[in-house]
Amino acid sequence: MSTGLSQIDPASLNWVEHWYPIAWKGLLVAGLITVIGAIGSMGFLLLQWRTSGIREQQSDWRISILEVQAKQADADLERAKLDIADADARAAAMQVDATRATERASALETDAAKAHERIAALETEAAAAKATTAAANARAAEAQLALERAKSDIADADARAAGAQADATLATERAAALAADAAKAQQRIATLEKEVAAATAAIADANERAREAQSAPEKFREQRILTLEHQARITAAVMPYAGQEYTLSVAAGSEPEALLCAIDAALMAARWKRLPSSDSITVDTKCGTVGIITLPGLSVRLSDKAETEQQWRVLVLVNALKAAGIAVDAAIDAENTSPTAIAVMVGAKPE
């Protein structure tokens, strides 16, 4: 018992075969871009943490230098105070000597003037020391500000780390969404398999119409010819299934042989793989050695052990031949020995 496949629009089938893998690749590329973005964020986070540590070390070093300078300025100030005290003591001694000896008054006044000049110099030095101390304090304030900025940078890095964690969470949610899309795709495949089964069930109706068409002698008196344009259309229809195996069988006569070789040329152009005929009796044709059949008409057969994918490819080939105006009978054949190869059998033109 054989079943048939209903005709499907080749343009719609080509559209489905073109965009279905592109949609899958688009989903994979989007997932990959999301993962790369998360990895980049973690890298920049580590870089920010490292630079913040270096800046903090630099700030600590600058603070220690300023503290040393401030201590040095304090030491200079203490020395200046000692010098002032020493000058005051000498001035007092000079004043005592002036009261005791009038003759030494001018000398003492000269010494006093020099002492005052020394005091002025010491005061100038003290002012400079104070300025140095003020500068040191200003630098210490700057160092404190730098430390505050470093702390702010660390807080900012922490905030960025939290953002990166949020991005990782979003990536996880995206992965879950992709898994859901994959489940939907599996459901779509199941739906397509049901459609193929329905198309297989419709083969009987197509075969019945073909048998009814065989009752019209004027139609079958026409020559079965595939032009180069027809062959190109068949090639384009089955090209997505490159590598599909097939076998050839033909009835005696130039007309079946010409049709067989035209079909073979279209399938070879689509990079289908032709297998040697398993028939015990073969014949040499213009397109090579093929099996011999005695059945009339053009038939396409597939083993009942074949996968759903092979059944779909039979349907595509049958629809392409029918679109070229060639009557064809498609069915599942339990006697077909190969579970993967499609048998193309060109019999004599029905009388």
Poorly predicted runs are: 212-221
Number of strands: 7
Tell me the β content: 5-15%
CATH topology of the largest domain: Helix Hairpins
Outline the structure in words:
This protein has about 350 residues and is of the alpha/beta class. The protein has helices spanning about 10-100, 105-200, 205-215, 215-220, 230-240, 255-270, 310-325; strands at about 245-250, 275, 280-285, 290, 300, 330, 340-345. Strands 1, 2, 3, 4, 5, 6 and 7 form a seven-stranded mixed beta sheet that branches. The radius of gyration is 50 Å and the shape is rod-shaped.
Structure summarized in a few sentences:
By secondary structure, the chain is of the alpha/beta class.
Task: Give the helix/strand layout.
Layout: H1 10-100, H2 105-201, H3 203-214, H4 217-220, H5 228-238, E1 245-250, H6 254-269, E2 273-274, E3 282-285, E4 288-292, E5 298-302, H7 308-323, E6 328-332, E7 342-346
Parallel strand pairs: 1-2, 1-4, 1-7, 5-6
Antiparallel strand pairs: 3-4, 5-7
Helix pairs in contact: 1-2, 2-7, 5-6, 5-7
